[in-house]
Structure formats: structure tokens, C-alpha cells
Design a protein that fits this description.
Blueprint lengths: L1 E7 L4 E6 L2 H9 L13 E3 L19 H23 L1 E4 L2 H10 L7 E3 L3 H9 L16
Parallel strand pairs: 4-5
Antiparallel strand pairs: 1-2, 1-3
Length: about 140
């Protein structure tokens, strides 16, 4: 297995594991490697700083820039999820219908969160209903 540091055209950095470099090339050509933040398949390998630990006396472990940015993003995402849970109503898979009703004035104006399919999200966007897609949390046991 090999891990590559990758970056999309919008500057989102992330890591991905592959069987070998050939597997990465094949999956990238097949547009199967996508940015976990924005979903684009336009990704490139970026230089990685190797780190070899030889023992406790090595001193503090320094993160490379991509790892540090990823950690910052994941922390911000966790804070965003906590804020939504504390301040908004969870509407589950009724998100698209509820967002549309709020937008049209048929339901109480308030913050909501839930799930929508890609088609439902596209319909909301086409109708001018304001919403934002937010990545799900990583499972705690991942």
C-alpha cells in the first residue's frame, strides 16, 4: 500500500491510499479519485515530506502542510456540525421539502439540517432555494 498527498484545483489537500502507483494512475484516469471536500475529480499528487521516527528522543513530530490543513478543516467541520445540532432543527430526509416550504413562506423560517439526494439538491438550486451542502462527519471508528 502507498499513500499519496493529493490536491484538487481548488486547493483542498487530502490523502488517499492505493495498492501501488499504477493503481493510482489507473483510478485517476478513470476519474475515480475525487476531492472529499468539493467532489471534483481534477486532482494531482503534491510533494510530501517524509517523516521517519527513530524513537522518543526524536523530539516533537512536525506535520507537513497538507496534514495540518486537513486537521484544521476537520476541526472546523466538527465545530460546524456541533453548531448546527445545537441551533437548528433536524428534519432528516424531509430536508428538500422543508427547505422549499421555508423558502416559499409555507413553514416557519428557521435553521434546518438533514439529508437530500443529489437530484433534490439540484432541484433546490434550480428553484433558487438557499442551502449549503456540508460534508458528513467521519465515523469515530474509522
Amino acid at each position: 500500500m502507498i499513500v499519496f498527498n493529493l490536491q484538487c484545483g481548488d486547493g483542498h489537500g487530502f490523502e488517499a491510499w492505493f495498492k501501488d502507483a499504477k493503481a493510482y494512475d489507473s483510478q485517476r484516469r478513470g476519474r475515480k479519485v475525487a476531492c472529499p471536500v468539493c467532489g471534483t475529480a481534477k486532482v494531482e499528487k503534491v510533494p510530501a515530506a517524509p517523516r521517519i521516527a527513530t524513537g522518543a528522543a526524536d523530539g516533537p513530530v512536525l506535520m507537513d502542510h497538507a496534514t495540518a490543513r486537513s486537521a484544521q478543516f476537520m476541526n472546523a467541520l466538527e465545530q460546524m456540525h456541533r453548531h448546527m445540532e445545537e441551533n437548528c432543527d433536524y428534519v432528516g430526509d424531509r430536508f428538500a421539502d422543508e427547505a422549499r416550504a421555508i423558502h416559499q413562506g409555507d413553514a416557519e423560517g428557521r435553521g434546518i439540517y438533514g439529508e437530500a439526494t443529489k437530484d433534490e439538491a439540484q432541484d433546490l438550486a434550480d428553484e433558487g432555494v438557499p442551502f449549503a451542502a456540508i460534508p458528513k462527519r467521519r465515523p469515530k471508528d474509522a
